Amino acid sequence: MHEPVIPHLQAEDPEIAGLVEAEARRQFEKIRLIASENYVSPAVLEATGSVLTNKYSEGYAGRRYYEGQQNIDPVELLAIERARSLFGAEHANVQPYSGSPANLAVYLAFLQPGDTVLGLSLPMGGHLTHGWSVSATGKWFNAVRYGVRADTGRIDMDEVRDLARRERPKLIWCGGTAIPRTIDFPAFAEIARETGAVLAADIAHIAGLIAGGAHPSPFGHADVVSTTTHKTLRGPRGAMVMSTAEHAAAIDKAVFPGLQGGPHNHTTAAIAVALKEAATPGFAAYARQIVANARALAAALLERGYDLISGGTDNHLILIDLTNKGVAGKPAAQALDRAGVELNYNAVPFDPRKPFDPSGLRLGTAAITTRGLTEEHMPQLAAWIDEVVQATAKGDAAEVEQKVAARIRELLAAHPMPGWAPAP
Predict the structure, then answer these.
(1) Residue 424 — pLDDT band, cuts 50, 70, 90?
(2) What is residue 423's predicted lDDT score, i.e. its pLDDT?
(3) What is the mean pLDDT of residues 115-123?
(4) Whether pLDDT at 230 is above 90
(5) Residues marked as catalytic
(6) Would you list which residues are annotated within the binding site for (6S)-5,6,7,8-tetrahydrofolate?
(7) How many CB atoms lie under 10 A from the CB of residue 147?
(8) Does this model's pTM top 0.90?
(9) How far is CA 356 from CA 318, 328, 347, 399, in A?
(10) For the chain, what is the HEC assignment?
(11) Known binding-site residue numbers
(12) Where on this chain does (6S)-5,6,7,8-tetrahydrofolate bind (predicted)?
């Protein structure tokens, strides 16, 4: 049963309703370890599906190009004020449609085509929009990339400093998509100040941890901070760009009219709801539990002989190199999905395999923590992962997949999912 219910969808378009129902059941029955996924609250779902989707609101509060904004302006202003209060930001723009446009707005605010940008290499854990070659950011700008140390798997700050001194980038990115360790925002800020660069922190993965006090904050160090609003922040699929007051006008102009037209008001409202939820003591406890679960799962995997990049985790994310297990990331991820464990195959630093068939797995603990799993469940989860990986390496995993999937369904039946429950 859906919460909120969807009787009109079921009546008007049973085909789509059936797929929504199937997806809800899939999310209920699987241990979801994709690091960029979570479950939102029924309140966020309601806001996302509200009549605010009917309204077009090009511009900013008090400066719109369409009439009828009497209720929309307060919604956006609430989202802005809640973002500023939660993160301690001087300025917040809540209109970006998603993380990549938010990052593009940072480029538009500070750079001209051809300018130099320094970011973490994609195979080392960075994001496409930090200057990778297939992204517009790598085609339109002179992208210089730093990496991680081969001996520790951690960002090589000496390399960052040397590259910044030599290349003199106008923009330096810190943050990424597969970084299992704490980001040293003060060290990045020192390098940016020394070389005259703007420092941008991409906290898409760790925003909820920062909001809950489970990870150091970039505010006070970075000039501009971008983030998605799902992942650990547990909001809708949207994004924000926050900055110092000095850069507020440039950021706003870059988002609109630089890159976008009218904002998605239903998403803005859902972001506001999620930000209110994230300001509660319960959310702070949730953020701490995410990290505790990740560390417990990492320890259990290490005990079973898994090679973890950087040797463990400080946040929600674990990156595994499966080379010593005799199986590549893609077949392992596909087998685990059939077994009820949803994660993604992922390149690891210095990976000799191709990106679409890499050596690693990436997993995160935000969604399973929302379901109420704790440290006590992590050794069993590691055992299930290991059982499937070993069977996949041997080429005969079908029976193991079915057995593990059944046990996972049994476990998760006792842990409610926000937004949906099986019919009684």
Answers:
(1) confident
(2) 87
(3) 97
(4) yes
(5) 56, 58, 202, 228, 231, 237
(6) 122, 126-128, 246
(7) 18
(8) yes
(9) 19, 11, 8, 27
(10) CECCCCHHHHHHCHHHHHHHHHHHHHHHHCEECCCCCCCCCHHHHHHHCCHHHHCCCCEECCEECCCCCCCHHHHHHHHHHHHHHHHCCCEEECCCCCHHHHHHHHHHHHCCCCCEEEEECHHHCCCHHHCCCCCHHHHHCEEEEECECCCCCCECHHHHHHHHHHHCCCEEEECCCCCCCCCCHHHHHHHHHHHCCEEEEECCCCHHHHHCCCCCCCCCCCCEEEEECCHHHCCCCCEEEEECHHHHHHHHHHHHHHHCCCCCHHHHHHHHHHHHHHCCHHHHHHHHHHHHHHHHHHHHHHHCCCEEHHHCCCCCEEEEECHHHCCCHHHHHHHHHHCCEECEEECCCCCCCCCCCCCEEEEECHHHHHCCCCHHHHHHHHHHHHHHHHHHHHCCCHHHHHHHHHHHHHHHCCCCECCECCCC
(11) 122, 126-128, 246
(12) 122, 126-128, 246
**pLDDT, tens digit, 9 for 90 and up, residues 349-406:** 999 999 999 999 999 999 999 999 999 999 999 999 999 999 999 999 999 999 999 9
Q: pLDDT tens-digit profile of 143-183? A: 999 999 999 999 999 999 999 999 999 999 999 999 999 99
Average pLDDT, the chain: 97
Averaged pLDDT for residues 287-315:
98
Q: Give the residue extent of every domain in the chain.
A: 46-278, 292-412
For domain 292-412, the question of CATH label 3.90.1150.10 is answered with yes
**pLDDT tens digits, 358-368:** 999 999 999 99
Please classify residue 73 by burial: count the beta carbons closer than 10 Å to its beta carbon, then call 0-12 exposed, 13-18 middle and 19+ buried: middle
CA distances, 302 to each of 149, 153, 309, 400 (Å): 20, 15, 11, 22
